[in-house]
Amino acid sequence: MLCRTTVTLLLAIPGLVQAALTNSTTCVDIHFMLARGTTESYPGTTYSMAELVAENTTLSSNYENIIYPAVDESGSDSYFIGRAAVGSQVNAYAKACPRAKIVLISYSQGAMIVGDALAGGGGDSTLGSATDPLISKEVSNHIAANVYYGNPRHAPFQSYNFGNSTWNVTGKYPRLEYQVKYLHDRYSHVTADWCNNGDGVCSPSAGAGGLALHMAYSQDYDPVAAAWILKTIKA
């Protein structure tokens, strides 16, 4: 676990600040793939975390957005389009740039489409029939880090769960048991899932502060999450 002191020191090393991230799919050392939340404009909440990582490494980096509508999944095809886009874009970049470290950073509905591309999706009346993963074992080896904020499919009792007392809570769209196992077995070593207790998306026992908690992730966790990424990808 990274303490606040360690995080502060890690993110204050002089001489590492680089230019702002470029939106590009050219081959670099670290390629961030950002999946924004519902109603957000590109690049969304997740950009600030990617930028913080980029500013604290000497490795080259850029980012691309996962291209999908990011509108309410219950009344549109946004989820289905997004899930397919994650699979297509991750597979394409891994093939084009096999030496790059892919870092997935996703928020809210974005976290759902990323997780479902990795572990298989659906299995719910809103999300449709269960589907297979869209990322092969070979391609999964190119994913160096996978971070969720406010994940609607947050699973309880996982080693990669972080946040405010959400070890035992289940998200808005519970994941099928075999999908939870698949995600754990293949990705737990590169995954971190931040959920605030009371966030009605990842922790549906939300009270009156649920929406505020769902919108607080960047402010609450970006320095810690960025430090976790740097440590995980050994940048």
What is the structure about, briefly put?
The chain is of the alpha/beta class. It has helices at 4-10, 47-55, 78-96, 109-119, 137-140, 177-187, 210-214, 217-232, and strands at 30-35, 61-65, 101-107, 143-149, 161-164, 191-196. The protein has a single domain, classed as Rossmann fold, CATH 3.40.50.
CATH topological fold name: Rossmann fold
Q: Evaluate the radius of gyration.
A: 16 Å
- Structurally, how many domains make up the residues? 1
The percent range for helix content is 25-40%
Beta strand count? 6
The CATH superfamily is known as Alpha/Beta hydrolase fold, catalytic domain
Widest sheet: strand order?
2-1-3-4-6-5
Q: Stretches where pLDDT falls below 50 for ≥5 residues?
A: none
Distance between the termini: 17 Å
The secondary-structure class comes to alpha/beta
* CATH classification class: Alpha Beta
| Major sheet description | 6 strands, parallel
Oligomer: single chain
> What characteristic shape results from the CA principal axes?
globular
* Average pLDDT level: 92
Query: In sequence order, what are the helices and strands, one letter per element?
Result: HEHEHEHHEEHEHH
Strand content: 5-15%
Number of helices, where a helix is a run of at least 4 consecutive DSSP H or I residues:
8
Give the name of the CATH architecture.
3-Layer(aba) Sandwich
